[in-house]
Design a protein that fits this description.
The complex is a heterodimer. Chain A is mostly helical. Chain A contains 17 helices and no strands. The longest helix of chain A is centred in the C-terminal third of the chain and has 36 residues. In chain B, the strands form three sheets. In chain B, strands 1-2-3-8 form a four-stranded antiparallel beta sheet. A two-stranded antiparallel sheet of chain B has the order 4-5. Chain B has a two-stranded antiparallel ribbon with strand order 6-7. In chain B, β1 and β2 form a beta hairpin. Classes of the chains: A mainly alpha, B alpha+beta. Chains A and B meet through α2, α11, α12, α15 and α16 of A and α1, α3, α4, α9 and α10 of B.
Chain lengths: 399, 386
């Protein structure tokens, strides 16, 4: 047996060795460890003591529905469950068909998510109907993941269209009309509104951002100047200023007959803001496409529009997907600013719950719970984005 | 000889070049004209005439914190100046604090101590993934307003007093002779700089800069103490005097909450930038430096950090800009920054356009100044390529 055939030596360390190596390898590290342990102990003692003895979590428990869907009519909640089901089903299909075939992580990941969802369903003190819905949706995720994996080649090209097509259906289910009882946008609150604001804004901002990025790279000086000016001005202003512009100035510069409601004005502001930031990401993607690609395409006789549509954009946008997810995360957090403009999204509903006399002063409980909701969404997306980045990076190296 | 058939107009690139630009200009002009006519019609209906004359009328509202003197009888222009001063105050302190915390957390993320690494990771991932506004609400309502009301107080070593009305920290206080001391200090710095510059031209090994600095400082202090018999800067510790706190640096809960919230939030991004920057320095640099026999602290200071700085500085600038822009969230917790004052001004006068113009111009100028400074610094750290 040569040395090459020998199996690698099994590296196993005892907990003692691990401690020596990771916590107490030098004198200053030992000191640091001790200081950190002491701090950790102090903080945990205070926080856990507060959580289990002083905090009154009834404020969260009694308002659970408000946090998620706000004042949406309770007897129409099935429509929102259906919406969640469609989104989860599509997400499962996409996850299943896009995850690389060999990666074990995705299988484990989907099992973990399903298990967590089922665990939440069983453990949380919820009434029966939400429990049934949640359980069914968790199983749906698992099922659609396997379906997606099984028919990956068939589904992959259709996914983008499926999402785009589902969007109006989801809006119809939430808003009603066309045979369903319509629900005024005033009743779309809480996490539901936050999600809607974020997704709608990013979807609408995306085409604008591509146009802006292309405009900034255009060889027509006037177009280039306009786009650069727009992007730089918007990026130099605080979001709250842009939202002020959308809420106050938009009604002034639009004709009197065209009255946008508060929600639409908010979305307009968010779109304006995010288009500028996304445009910079897209521009980076455009610059990453080697010049040879468009030169080769033009040499083949494609006209400039086709070169852009078939050659440059697909490559550029593929590179910027992680950046777009990152932008979506920050947009998701930014929607909280709309609570300053009297929109009752997740932060807004927290403030209105805190304004009720019986929950006066329960700031910490409510804000921690709402923070947890934001955190779950943002953190899971940032993990997904990191995976995507690795996945795309690997793909990039191979070609 | 006949020239070849001329290219039809619609296939001529130059034709489209001109048409495209003319079209864009025309469309923009039409859009602006429509917006403008709507605007003037709507403003006419509201009975408002465009103009900045209103800035001279009396503001008649109170501002919580006034770093420059202000009374409600002053005009709107003065009120907005106070707002700007408040914005700049929180931005400057925020940038300093965020940099310190961020760099520390970023280095902690790279520590070889497992516990330190994990703590930094938890800090970064929690605060980065929740909205800043929510954090500000939490800091203000749950933390700073949750402190006991005077005369009850929480005392931390320092002494630092935490109360609902104010947060008091020990701080320097200016004495009669502070000017003299500042003069001496600048002379000292100049001296050290000259010495260092002169020393660096000589080939012989010189005394380390820090030693020179400390040495001359000690000599200057000694001379000044003997000749002038004064203290440099008073060390002003806050103290409890009959149900109130006197002395020290007293921060309002609004300012403290905004400063802490903004800095800790921005610091998470700075931590990631620092970590990324240090990791972007190739492993070979570490190995080569170690092979040369440099001490670990020297490796970091002389080899890794100057290279990491090149990728850190531009992103750091972006975070400073974000911090300056995010300081406008002050309105949510009742700190009178520029946006808050402008918003009150709009509510009182209905001058949407003028207020919007003022906000835009001011924030754009702040952004420009910060990015200008960062660009200037960036040029000094970047590699000079031949």
């Amino acid at each position: 047996m040569t040395l090459d055939d020998a199996p690698p030596p099994v590296l196993s360390i005892t907990p003692w060795q691990w401690l020596r190596r990771n916590l107490f390898n030098t004198w200053y590290n030992s000191l640091l460890t001790l200081i950190c342990l002491w701090l950790l102990f102090q903080v945990l003692q205070a926080v856990l003591g507060w959580v289990f003895t002083q905090a009154q979590w009834t404020v969260v428990q009694t308002n659970l529905r408000l946090f998620f869907i706000g004042r949406y009519p309770p007897n129409l909640a099935w429509r929102l469950w259906l919406v969640l089901g469609i989104v989860v089903g599509l997400a499962g299909l996409s996850w299943g068909s896009l995850a690389p075939a060999r990666s074990l992580w995705s299988k484990r990941g989907v099992s973990i998510v399903t298990a967590i969802a089922l665990g939440v369903t069983i453990l949380l003190p919820l009434p029966l109907p939400p429990r049934l819905w949640l359980g069914a949706i968790a199983l749906l995720l698992f099922g659609s993941f396997w379906l997606g994996k099984r028919f990956a080649t068939l589904l992959k090209p259709q996914l983008a269209w499926a999402w785009l097509g589902a969007f109006p259906i989801l809006l119809w289910l939430i808003g009603g009309g066309l045979g369903l009882r319509s629900v005024s946008t005033n009743f779309w609150n809480g996490l539901l509104l936050t999600m809607l604001l974020a997704t709608t804004s990013i979807v609408l901002a995306f085409p604008f951002s591509v146009l802006l990025a292309l405009g900034r790279q255009s060889n027509l000086p006037v177009v280039r100047w306009f786009c650069t000016l727009f992007v730089e001005i918007v990026r130099g202003l605080p979001l709250i200023g842009i939202l002020f512009l959308a809420q106050v100035m938009l009604p002034l510069i639009l004709p009197v007959e065209l009255r946008l409601d508060r929600l639409l004005r908010a979305i307009a502001g968010l779109v304006l803001f995010n288009a500028a930031y996304l445009a910079e990401n897209v521009r980076a993607g455009l610059q990453a496409v080697p010049r040879g690609q468009s030169e080769a395409a033009r040499a083949l006789g494609l006209n400039p529009l086709w070169v852009l549509w078939l050659i440059v954009l697909p490559q550029a946008l593929r590179v910027v997907i992680p950046a777009i997810v990152g932008q979506f995360i920050s947009l998701f957090k930014d929607t909280s600013l709309l609570s300053i403009f009297a929109l009752v999204e997740l932060t807004g509903i927290a403030r209105s719950i805190l304004a009720q006399p019986q929950f006066l002063g329960r700031y910490a409980e409510v804000y921690l719970f709402v923070g947890l909701l934001y955190w779950i969404v943002c953190y899971s997306m940032s993990i997904a984005s990191r995976r995507l980045e690795q996945h795309l990076g690997v793909g990039h190296k191979r070609t | 000889m006949k020239t070849q058939r001329s290219v039809p107009l619609w296939r001529d690139v130059r034709f489209w070049w001109v048409v495209g630009q003319v079209l864009v200009v025309l469309l923009t002009a039409i859009a602006i004209a429509i917006f403008w006519s709507n605007l003037s019609r709507n403003l006419q209906q509201l009975g408002i005439q465009f103009g900045f004359g209103f800035l001279n009328s009396q503001a008649a509202f109170d501002i919580g914190e006034t770093p420059i003197s202000y009374r409600p009888s002053d005009n709107y222009a003065r009120a907005l100046q106070v707002g700007l001063a408040n914005s700049l105050r929180v931005t400057v302190f925020g940038i300093v604090l965020a940099t310190v915390v961020g760099v520390t957390a970023g280095i902690a993320r790279l520590s070889d101590n497992w516990l330190v690494r994990q703590l930094a990771l938890v800090y970064v991932e929690t605060l980065r993934n929740t909205p800043l506004l929510l954090q500000l609400f939490f800091w203000y309502f749950a933390v700073f307003l949750g402190f006991p009301r005077l005369p009850a107080h929480i005392q931390l070593p320092g002494p630092i007093y935490l109360t609902q009305q104010t947060v008091a920290l020990p701080w320097f206080h200016v004495t009669r002779d502070t000017d003299v001391w500042l003069l001496l200090l600048s002379a000292n710095l100049l001296l050290v700089w000259a010495w260092h510059w002169w020393g660096s031209r000589a080939a012989a090994p010189t005394v380390p800069l820090l030693l020179k600095l400390l040495g001359t400082l000690a000599v200057t202090v000694a001379i000044a103490l003997i000749i002038f018999e004064t203290e440099i800067l008073g060390w002003d510790a806050p103290r409890i005097v009959a149900d109130s706190i006197e002395g020290g640096l007293q921060l309002s809960p609004e300012f403290a909450a905004l400063l802490v919230g903004l800095s800790l939030y921005t610091a998470t991004f700075i931590a990631e930038i620092v970590r990324g920057g240090v990791q972007s320095v190739s492993q070979g640099q570490w190995e080569a430096a170690r092979a040369l026999g440099l001490r670990p602290s020297y490796i970091l200071r002389l080899v890794i950090f100057p290279q990491a700085l090149r990728s850190i500085v531009p992103s750091l600038g972006n975070q400073y800009l974000n911090l300056a822009k995010n300081s406008s969230l002050a309105i949510a917790i009742g700190y009178s920054d520029l946006y808050a004052v402008a918003s009150t001004t709009y509510n009182q006068t209905g001058r949407a356009v003028e207020v919007m113009v003022l906000i835009s111009v001011t924030y754009l100028s702040i952004s420009l100044v910060i990015s200008g400074l960062i660009n200037w610094y960036n040029r000094t750290v970047q590699l000079v390529e031949r």
